[in-house]
Amino acid sequence: GQNIDQPTEMTATEGAIVQINCTYQTSGFNGLFWYQQHAGEAPTFLSYNVLDGLEEKGRFSSFLSRSKGYSYLLLKELQMKDSASYLCAVSDSNYQLIWGAGTKLIIKP
Amino acid sequence: ETGVTQTPRHLVMGMTNKKSLKCEQHLGHNAMYWYKQSAKKPLELMFVYSLEERVENNSVPSRFSPECPNSSHLFLHLHTLQPEDSALYLCASSQGRDGTGGYNEQFFGPGTRLTVL
Questions:
Q1: Residue B102 pLDDT grade (very low, low, confident, very high; cuts 50, 70, 90)
Q2: In 3D, which of B87, B68, B79 has the Cα closest to residue B30?
Q3: A101 → closest Cβ in B40, B109, B110
Q4: Which end of chain B has less Cβ packing within 10 Å, N or C?
Q5: CA gap A24, B71 in Å, rounded
């Protein structure tokens, strides 16, 4: 079966760095997405990786290793507004998005 | 504001009611999606429409019936739902498959919080 695993919840301190991991087992691979979802709001796109390596976008970076079926989202200089759920999703061989259950990130002052 | 709107934002209905959820996208996209989001569970893809034709249906119960009259509008008709159908229903749109065949990033609406009594 197809499966996306990510931690349920993480806690970090304002100003610090946090890494949210995602491992996947899917039938085929056509890219991996990270989305951010604040409570009661719509998910919003953060990043897309289809090749191995690191993609940097401001305070957020996303890494992919296709051979390991692994990705992480790195958030630097954490701000209180970064408190949200972070969703990992993989596009499979049929270009259907398979979603993880999301990681709730709690930022403490 | 993502350019995708959904109405209503909240809906409470009995199991014998019939209601419809509406989604509208103002982004010029050609693919639209319905997702179900339950607490602490992954997003579940329900339906995909590309160029107004349904291309995927992940074995969703027939009490959910989608309708896509044009590329900007998407409806989800609800009939004789069960309490376990209570969830957040999200609509999304994208530009559909890109030149490599892959779907582009999806833009989500704010969702409809559905409660079935």
A1: low
A2: B68
A3: B40
A4: N
A5: 32
